[in-house]
Amino acid sequence: MNNGVWEIIPRPSDKSVVTSKWIYKVKHDIDGSIDKYKARFLERGFSQTKGIDYEETFAPTARYTTIRSLVLLATTMVRNIH
Questions:
Q1: Less Cβ around it within 10 Å: N or C end of the chain?
Q2: How many domains does the chain have?
């Protein structure tokens, strides 16, 4: 909210809300010590009905090579500015 990323709007009375939840996992090394903590945010789309709650689905995905290319491009542009 402080960064202006979210905007709260009233829910239409004829629409249902898609619930969500966080999934937390603790990954361990072979010796049993904690290696890292992981978290995922999931939307529970099973509460939707096709044709009523949504017309199409969209799941944004990015290939690792695409992300690397964008980071390389950004760092190159920053270096050229300075």
A1: C
A2: 1
50 within domain boundaries? yes
Alpha carbon of 28 to those of 5, 7, 33: distances in Å? 34, 38, 6
Handedness of CA 41, 46, 49, 55 (dihedral sign): positive
Whether 80 has a pLDDT exceeding 70, the answer reads yes
Residue at 5 is within a domain: no
Burial of 48 (0-12, 13-18, 19+ CB in 10 A): middle
Question: Does some domain include residue 76?
Answer: yes
pLDDT one-digit tens code per residue, 67-77: 889 899 998 88
Q: Which domain holds residue 47?
A: 20-81
